[in-house]
Each structure stands twice: as C-alpha cells, then as structure tokens.
Design a protein that fits this description.
CATH topology: Pyruvate-ferredoxin Oxidoreductase, domain 3
Low-confidence stretches: none
Distance between the termini: 29 Å
Helix content: 25-40%
Mean pLDDT: 90
CATH architecture: 3-Layer(aba) Sandwich
Radius of gyration: 15 Å
CATH class: Alpha Beta
Number of domains: 1
Strand order of the largest sheet: 2-3-1-4-5-6
Amino acid sequence: MDKAHEIIFAGFGGQGILSMGQIISYSAMIENKEVSWMPSYGPEMRGGTANCIVIVSPSRISSPIISRFDSAIVLNQPSLEKFEHEVKPGGLLIYEESTIINPPKRNDLEILCVPANEEAQKLGKKQVANMILVGAFLARRPIVKIETIIKALEKVLPERHHHLIPLNEQALMIGQKIANQMEKEIIQL
C-alpha cells in the first residue's frame, strides 16, 4: 500500500456499518498504518441511515473530511443513490445483492454484487453479512491482512461475543471466495 485508501461504508443502522469501518481501522492500526474513522448516523440509530468514512494510509492523513472515495460498500438503496457518484473513476463499489433494487449504472468502476445476507443466513447468523462484505472488499483491495482483521475482532467485539470470532473468520473467507470467483468469471468472459 503506497498511498491512502478512502472508503465509505453506508447503509441502515443495525447492519454493522460502523463495525465494518471500526474493524478495518483497528486492523490498520495493528499494522502501524495511519487511520481516520469518522462515523455518521441519524438520531434514531437502528433502522436510520448510517455511514462511516475510513482512510487508511502509510503516511499522515492531512484531512479526514473527504467527498470522493476510492471504494464504497453499500447495504441499501438510499446509500447507493447517495454515494455511487462519489466513488472515483476506477474505484470499487461493492453492494449487498438483496438490498439493492436498482443496481449501479456506472461503467467506470469495478462493481461487485455480493449475496452477503444469503450467505450469512446459510451460516445461521445474519449479523456476519458485514464480514462477508469486508472479506470481498479485502480480496479486491488488500489494504490490511485477513489475519489482522481477526486480531482486530478481539478488540472490537465485546468479550462475551468472542466465541463468534471463528464464525466471523469463516464469513471473511466466504467473502474472499465470492470476490475471487467473480474475478475468474470476468477473466473468462
């Protein structure tokens, strides 16, 4: 990683939006990278809109206030409509398949449609859908290592939920597999 990577995570409160950003941020700190994590959410929290901006950089971050992103991970239609056009050309846009009615229209981005909710249901824990999306993101933009994400989960998750770390690790691997499979399909076309 030779330059800063700017990411927006966006969706409804309760979908793990802030957690995704926090886990990436903690992971980057563990890897001695510079980090900015800026959450934003409506007053109603769960069910309201939520997003967070994360910047991971090998050098000092001049400003956490940005309006254009290298990557966006969106979990609902309003967030897609709001942030699709804020992703820089050549950037990455990942969205959750079942929550988006009108898919992105841009052709200057790498776009991944990930069935995270469906895969999380197969694992028996819908709350790990966000980790499936993080796994897919890191398959395409390896700004931190998966091993570091596992260490960060130990810091982010309350101790009473540490028994879920293996399930979260499994979700990360599923996300990686989905993203890698999509890459193979693109190459074969």
